[in-house]
Amino acid sequence: MALDRSDVEKIAHLARLGLNDADIPRTTEALNSILGLIDQMQAVDTTGIEPLAHPLEASQRLRVDAVTEINHRDTYQAIAPAVQDGLYLVPKVLD
Amino acid sequence: MQWEVVIGLEIHTQLTTQSKIFSGSATTFGSEPNTQASLVDLGMPGTLPVLNKEAVQMAVKFGLAIDAEIGQHNVFARKNYFYPDLPKGYQISQMELPIVGKGHLDITLEDGTIKRIGVTRAHLEEDAGKSLHEDYSGMTGIDLNRAGTPLLEIVSEPDMRSAKEAVAYVKAMHALVRYLGICDGNMAEGSLRCDCNVSIRPKGQVEYGTRCEIKNVNSFRFIEKAINSEIQRQIDLIEDGGKVIQQTRLYDPNTNETRAMRSKEEANDYRYFPDPDLLPVIIEDAFLEQTRATLPELPPQKRERFQSQFGLSLYDASVLASSREQADFFEKVVSISGDAKLAANWVMVELGSLLNKQGVEIDESPVSAEQLGGMLLRIKDNTISGKIAKMVFEGMANGEGSADEIIDQRGLKQVTDSGAIESMLDDVLAANAEQVEQYRAADEAKRGKMFGFFVGQAMKASKGKANPGQVNELLKRKLEG
Question: At what angle do helices B299-310 and B324-337 cross, to 10 degrees?
Fold first, then answer.
């Protein structure tokens, strides 16, 4: 499997990465070499092997359902670029 | 052309945990913006999610209630997309190994038949925050209190064939999650939200048509209207030679139409992958059995019990069992009054219309189960007639106190003292001497109607309080004279 320019443009858009036109060939090449390694791994026969969800041989610990956090809004909002009426302000999402 | 409609639904239910699914923030609805958004909910670097046990238990409870396979090894995945109310840039959800697998739910159709609807899966995920698009100096306001609230997304099979069936399914699911106590079902507050997948195909065709998804419909009425308008749109489109394009649409209740979401709002390349911050969740058999033991009696079992234990009709039993609050209210009235049929009638008819009129749910009923049960006792021991009971009920609805207090204060106690009834009847007959003459002169055939006149006068004179049986009997004797 190999990516072409349009794949890379699409992936960059989905990840909201602003790639320069000049960077695209280099990025395509880098991604393709990673995929080459994956192709090599995919050639291994994995019949009968369960897919791995996590590299650790452990299972998730569960938390008791209790409220342990208190309101730190003012502290958290001190580093926000814009706030109003307790809301974080972001560039308009809908026009 | 005869068209067949195919509908599948995705229902998002907010679980009623105290804290969020991956953090210790509160989940209370309607708090000041961002006062329940911790570092984890804000997606700050260096934080890690820790799974809430109660959310897992609630999901398992749901799975057991719909007879589903429980994913005893289930895995969380990241669903990647960018939106300001999702600070991490991904939603933690489940993809390949959900906690609840295939199950089913039975719904009752309008003609009384029962249809089984398949549930494909249900998975745990976190809710996003809220975007407020009102004008904040030309910007969008973000409230992250809701971010991280646990959701159980329930995905149905495309088993429904009309908007009415879809509504029946959502109602049954709504009742179930409330019975289980895992979701408050408040659709106005967004605790239960529904996405509807709708397609049509020529009757008899096996392959499905192209579907459209109507996002976020938030009332039973809108679900039915949104689906019907989408069905009509697809039929018109195809019959005019067009083609349905797979897309996400929004329903506008004002125009009763669906419109396509702009492509900018749509992002369906989510690039799911297992979340490395969370280990696989293992549900041990013991946990499963423990959870099974907490399952309450569910609507179908309750309906059957109401029929066999109380001798109610299928209809009455299904109506009363349709919500847990109503069923509990009814059973309380029965336990006080000892008369299930009388209790069923009063809960469904008089109480039902009172609640309807006031637009409140049964748990906010102005007349309590204790009050209603107490009043039924007074009907049963002949203290009041059914007619007077309606006045007493009105009094209770107006906050005048218990049935006994109202009967006492307003002097509504039925008169059963035959001496008192007789003397009242003597007065009535004396005041209507002419009619008495006519009655005695009339032949048997005409007397029936005339007798009714005297009964009416007597009940009026006693303000409805004289025991009707005694009035009849004594009156007859006196008129025979």
Answer: 20
Tens-digit pLDDT profile for residues B12-46? 999 999 999 999 999 999 999 999 999 999 999 99
Count CA atoms closer than 13 A to B197's CA, side-chain side. Answer: 16
> Inter-chain contact A84–B137, Cβ cutoff 8 Å?
yes
* The pLDDT value given to residue B265: 47
| Domain assignments of chain B as residue spans, ordered by start | 3-291, 299-409, 418-480
In angstroms, the CA B33 to CA B130 distance is: 10
Do the strands B150-156 and B139-143 form a parallel or antiparallel pair, or are they unpaired? unpaired
Q: In angstroms, rounded to a whole number, what is the distance separating the alpha carbons of residues A61 and B396?
A: 52
DSSP B387-448: HHHHHHHHHHHTT---HHHHHHHTT-PPB--HHHHHHHHHHHHHHTHHHHHHHHHS-HHHHH
Write out chain A residues lying below 8 Å of B80, CB-based: 14
B428-453: pLDDT as tens digits: 888 888 888 888 888 888 888 888 88
Q: Closest chain B residue to A91 measured between Cα atoms?
A: B139
Residue with tokens 């007619």: B387
- Chain A: residue whose CA lies nearest to B134: A92
Q: Give dist(CA B91, CA B126) in Å, integer.
A: 7
Other beta carbons less than 10 A from residue B138's beta carbon: 8
- Which of A63, A52, A54 has its CA nearest to residue B279? A54
SS3 (DSSP) at B160: strand
Residues in chain B with pLDDT < 50?
264-266
Residue B67's identity, in one-letter code, is D
Domains of chain A in sequence order: 5-42 (1.10.20.60)
Q: Do B42 and A77 touch (CB under 8 A)?
A: no
CATH architecture, range B418-480? Orthogonal Bundle (1.10)
Query: How far away is chain B from the Cα of A71, in angstroms, using its nearest Cα?
Result: 5
Report, in this order, helix, strand and coil percent for chain A, each rounded to 5.
40, 10, 50
Give dist(CA B95, CA B204) in Å, integer: 33
- Please give the residue of chain B at the shortest CA–CA distance from A73: B35
CA dihedral B189, B103, B297, B292 (to 10 degrees): -100
Q: Determine, for residues A54 and B23 on separate chains, whether the beta-carbon distance falls below 8 Å.
A: no
Picking from A10, A70, A71, A88 by the largest number of B CB atoms within 10 A of its own CB, the best residue to mutate is A88
Contact B140 A60 (CB under 8 A): no
Structure token pair of residue B472: 């009849």
Q: Which residues in chain A have their CB less than 8 angstroms from residue B279's CB?
A: 53-54, 56, 58-61
Chain A and chain B share a number of CB contacts under 8 A equal to 129
CB–CB of A77 and B34 under 8 A?
A: yes
